[in-house]
Amino acid sequence: MRSNALQRPRLLLFAALVALLLAAAGLSAAGAEPVTPAADIPYVALEPFVSNLDQPVNLVGSGVPGDGRLFIVQQRGKIRIINPNGTLRAAPFLDISDRVDQTTGRTGLFGLAFHPDYATNGYFYVYYLQRVGDIFAARLSRFRVTADPNVADPAGENVLMTVAKDNAGHNAGDLSFGPDGYLYWPLGDGDSQVISSRPQDPTTIVGKMMRINVDNTPGEGAADCKGQGSGDYSIPPSNPFAGSTTACDKIWALGLRNPWRFSFDRQNGDLYLTDVGEDAWDELNHAAPGAGGRNYGWPCYEGEVVFEAAQWPARGCDKNTTFTFPILTQALHVNDDCSITGGFVYRGTRYPALVGRYFMTDYCSGNLRSLTHEDGQWVVALHNARAPLGIVSFGQGNDGELYLISLSGNKILRLVGDEGGPTATPTTTLLPPTPTTTATLPHTPTLTATATLPPDSPTATATPTATSTAVPIWSDWSYLSAVLGSAAGEPPFVPAAGR
C-alpha cells in the first residue's frame, strides 16, 4: 500500500548535463544527486507511526531476538516504549529528567545502546548532558532493567565516564555497540563558539570517537585520560593508541566537529558517520570494520576543502597527516539543506528493493537520499518522498525496518517501500573519494543474545502535550538563523506547556 507522504516530482535531464547538475546539486565529487529516470529509483514513502511525543531525538531496538518493542529517547530525560502492537506505553521505561540538563536547546538525553547480552544481564547505556553552574558534563552511564521488562531502575546509575565542557554546543549524541561487541561513543569538539585544536589533539577525547570494552575484560588495559566516573570499562588492545604514553587510548577516530549520528551496517559491519559542518559542507564518512585510527580532518578540512589554512599551525594541523576524506559532502544553503541527518543501511525484509541502501536526510529540507556502493563506486539517489522539517534521527528496529524521528513535530514516521518490488539497478556512479592509508585492526566476534523477553501488555497512548518549535541542537546558529528565522546565539530552553 502506498502512502500519501509528501512527494516532489523530478525532471529528467540529458546525460550531457550531468557535470553541470552535480555542481548545482550542492554535492561534491565524492557524492552527488544522480540524473536518472524516476523508474530506476525505488519507491519510498513516509507514513505516520507514533505521535504525541515530547521532544523525541532517538529510537532503537533492544537487539534481543523476538523483542518487537521500540525504545524512544526524549530529550528532556525520559525513554519510552512502543509495544509490538504499535501502542505507546504511558509509563516511561526510564526517567532521569531530574539529572538531565534542560536549560538549553542543545543539551539533554541523546544516546541509548543496549548491551549485546542485554537479554541476560539487563544492562543498557545512555549519554546525556548535566549542568553544574556554567560547566556542562557529558555523561556516559549504565543502567539496568528491573524484573519488569518495561521498567528500568533510575537509582542504579553507574557513571562510567564524565567529560567536562564549558559550552553547551557540539555534543554529538549517539551510542552504539559495534560488530566487535565494543561500545562506540563519538563526542563533538565541545564548543560552538570557538574553533579549537582539540579534534586534532590526541591527549583529549573531545572531537573524537571512542571505543571501549564495557565488560572490563581482565588483561585489557585500564584507561588513561580517565577523567571522572567509575571507569568500569577497559581498553581493547586493538585500539589505535592502546598502550600509548602520548595519546588517549580510548580514541578510535579523530578530527570530528559534531558527529550527531552514526550507525553500523548490521550485515557487514561497515561504519557510516555523519559530521555537521561549520560554514559550507556537511559530510558522510564511511569505514570498513576494524578501520580505526582514522583522522576525519576537522578543523583542518571541512569536507574535502581546506579550512582556513592560515590557522593550521594554531589548530594542530599538519600537512604530513594522513586524512580520511568523506564519501559524500553536502553543501549548506543549497537545495534548502542546512544540517545533515545520518541514518542506517536498510536490512529489513518487507521492501526488497531498499535492501543495502543507506538512508539519510536533512533537518531543514527533508530531502530523502539513499546511497549504495556498486562496483567500487558510490551511487546516490534523491527520492520523491520528502520528510517534514525537523528530522533529527533515524531509528532501526530489531527487524531492520527504519523510522524517522521528528523533533519539531514530536512524532515518528515509518519508512515504507513497495512490498515485493524489484531491486533497482543504479544508472549513475560517482567518483570515489581520495584514497587514504589507514591500518585495518582486528576485532573480536560479535556478541549475540538468544533469550526472549516476556511479552508486553497493551496500554493506552499518552495524552498530547504542546511544545515549542524545535531547532537543530547540533548545528550552528550562524547559518540556521537565516534558514529558520531564529535569533543568533544560544537560545533559552522553552519547556512544554504544563511542565
Tell me about this structure:
With 499 residues, the chain is mainly beta. The chain has a single domain, classed as Neuraminidase. It is 4% helix and 29% strand. It has three helices and 27 strands. The chain has helices at 18-24, 118-121, 477-484, and strands spanning 44-50, 56-60, 70-74, 78-82, 94-95, 109-114, 123-132, 135-144, 158-165, 176-177, 183-186, 209-212, 251-254, 262-264, 271-275, 281-287, 294-295, 301-302, 305-306, 328-331, 340-345, 358-362, 367-374, 377-386, 391-396, 402-406, 411-417. The strands form seven sheets. The chain has a five-stranded mixed beta sheet with strand order 10-11-12-13-17, with no helix packed on it. A four-stranded antiparallel beta sheet has the order 1-27-26-25, with no helix packed on it. Strand 18 and strand 19 (305-306) form a beta hairpin. The protein is globular, with a radius of gyration of 21 Å. The relative contact order is 0.19. Residues 1-24, 31-37, 423-470 and 476-499 have low confidence and may be disordered.
